[in-house]
Amino acid sequence: MNARLVRSLGVYVLWILVTLYGAKFLLGGEEAALDELVKNGVGWQFVAAIVVLLGAIAGFRWRDMKFGAPHSLVKVMWFPVLVLLAISSLAAVTGFPGGRAALFILLNTMLVGFSEEVMFRGVLFRALLENVRVWTAIVVTTVLFGGIHVLNGVNTGEWGMASLQAVAAGMSGLIFIAIVIRTGSIWPAIIYHGVWDCMLFLIKVGSEANGMETDPELAQQMMSGPTMFLPMLLALPNFVCALILLRKVRDADFPRGDAVPVVA
């Protein structure tokens, strides 16, 4: 384990504390659903987490975060964009929330997309590439990304839901890292991640605003039946697409751990 990986893990721990316990502090120690955290105002804990990341990147002079221009966008992104369009059709069915809530959802999910992509597909992934094989780095990064969502239970109190969300997040996390590797840039993954989260929250908040989840008994039945696996079902196209995009990735594509891969 080299010095960079140790520093990256330290940044990871600090990022967790700022993101999760920053939200807990802003809530005054109370529990709140995730949609409440993103629809009612600016998520300053996300802003603080981004400041931590950018400070670490500048301070440690990590210049391989892939903030450059992407390549092969159409070839890589055509199917993920189709998935987003399909998800957006669900949002149209459930109805959109009011303008103020929608605006905060868009802002906060883009902040989350930037923060999580830079943390996982930037800081951690690049550090891991200097220590392990590329597929080990992919798997470890994806598992850590999925696993961190279990800690949403700290703020929501819903540990079962947080565990399901963690599995779905891990499945989607694979497409985010595939996009970074195949386009040579972190920006498409940031945008896709943010828009993906935005659509999911618009569906949830819109359905609540339009009276589709007002019955607590019905909501409980949904969480105990087959529909509890809906987050994984929604993430499945991302997961399959990622496996296809990553099928030709080899260690030889990363000769120095920081090179832009050449994957056919």
UniProtKB/TrEMBL annotation:
Residues 101-199 form the CAAX prenyl protease 2/Lysostaphin resistance protein A-like domain. Keywords: Hydrolase, Membrane, Metalloprotease, Protease, Transmembrane, Transmembrane helix. It comes from the Bacteria. The keyword Calcium does not apply. GO terms for molecular function: endopeptidase activity; metallopeptidase activity. The keyword Transcription regulation does not apply. The chain crosses the membrane at residues 9-27, 42-60, 72-95, 132-151, 227-246. InterPro entries: CAAX_protease, Rce1/LyrA-like_dom. Pfam families: Rce1-like. One of its GO terms (biological process) is CAAX-box protein maturation. This is CPBP family intramembrane metalloprotease. It comes from Croceibacterium salegens. The lineage of its organism: Bacteria, Pseudomonadati, Pseudomonadota, Alphaproteobacteria, Sphingomonadales.
